[in-house]
Amino acid sequence: MKDLKKDIENSLSRQYKWLNHIENDFENADPMSLNFRFLERDWAVYEILNRNISKAKQHFCTASLLDKLRIEKFNNNMFDYELSAVTFPILSDNNELIKDYSTLRYKAWGRMPSMDENVLMGKSAIWCNTIQFFMVNDVQGVERNLNIIETLTLPKLPKNQQELKIDYEFYKALLAKDKAKCEELLEQLVSPKIHKKRNDNLVLNKYISQPALGYAKLAWRQGVEVEVNSSLVPKEILPIAPLDNYEIPYDFLKDEVK
Questions:
Q1: Is residue 257 part of a domain?
Q2: For a Cys-Cys bond, which of 108, 121, 230, 258 suits 190, CB 3.0-4.6 Å?
Q3: Is 109 helix (H, G, I), strand (E, B) or coil?
Q4: Cα gap 6→90, rounded to integer Å
Q5: How many Å apart are CA 3 and CA 94, to the nearest integer?
Q6: For 75, left (φ over 0), alpha (ψ -120 to 50), or beta?
Q7: Are 190 and 209 a contacting pair, CB within 8 Å?
Q8: 206 by DSSP, 3-state: which?
Q9: pLDDT tens for each residue of 93-150
Q10: Secondary structure of residue 60 in the 3-state scheme
């Protein structure tokens, strides 16, 4: 706990000038400056460990709003490589945000295809997009993506990404509402070898496991109240309980949030 608090405080000190710059000159801000949303994630984990679940949800909400801004304003392609971040709105329990987040897509730019095009080709964006479909109970969307993953994505999966087969099996089990299978796959995700590979933050990986935590929360949203026998999936944040009010802590963000 002391390590995590110290890490957060150090991050806050380093990134404060970034935040200052954004607030003072948002129109000319570099999209990388919005990466201080990792600090919001760190605070969320810290609050979970302190059993301040409401504060944790608020931080997950803020982190998600910052990501939403990265995509809408800067056309960031984070959905190609930030699978765990897509679970932040789910962990916030902010239903309106979850609905809005499910519709986010990066657009084609130069030689870069759009997110929807990449999904249809079975590229890496399909993992985040499948979670987006689960967010709004779009069964047809999930079924379509599972077929694409099976026929296009898995056959070309690099050797260093073979563990994503667990994610695929989890999506299938969740669609089938198979609680026992979901729990079995979540246990695989928190196993030492897989957890170490999927969680490279040397501080946070002592306390939570992603995407296992986000997947467990997603299961609860689907009415599948999974139980994971691991402290890396804190059970306190799993029940669905939206806050009465979600704050927007940054002035520049208030102007952008619709």
A1: no
A2: 230
A3: strand
A4: 27
A5: 29
A6: left
A7: yes
A8: helix
A9: 999 999 999 999 999 999 999 999 999 999 999 999 999 999 999 999 999 999 999 9
A10: helix
Cβ atoms of 227 and 235 closer than 8 Å: yes
Helices 125-135 and 139-148 pack at an angle, to 10 degrees, of 160
CB 100 within 8 A of CB 108: no
The two three-digit tokens of residue 18, written as one number: 């970034």
Strands (E), the chain: none
* Number of compact structural domains in the chain: 1
Q: In angstroms, how far is CA 217 from the centroid of its own chain?
A: 11
Residue with tokens 């759009």: 114
Q: Please check whether residue 210 lies inside any domain of the structure.
A: yes
Of 152, 112, 148, nearest to 130 by C-alpha is: 148
Considering the domain boundaries, does residue 248 fall inside one? no
User: Which run of H or of E encompasses 45?
Assistant: helix 37-49
Instruction: Give 93's DSSP letter.
Output: T
What range does the domain containing 230 cover? 2-239
Q: Which residue matches tokens 């809408």?
A: 72
Can you tell me the distance from the alpha carbon of 177 to that of 158, in angstroms, rounded to the nearest whole number?
Answer: 29
DSSP string of 118-169? HHHTT-THHHHHHHHHHHTT-HHHHHHHHHHIIIIIGGG--GGGTTHHHHHH
Q: pLDDT tens for residues 184-229?
A: 999 999 999 999 999 998 778 999 999 999 999 999 999 999 999 9
Strand partners, 112: 109
**29, part of any domain:** yes
pTM of the model as a whole: 0.90
Token output for 217: 């929360």
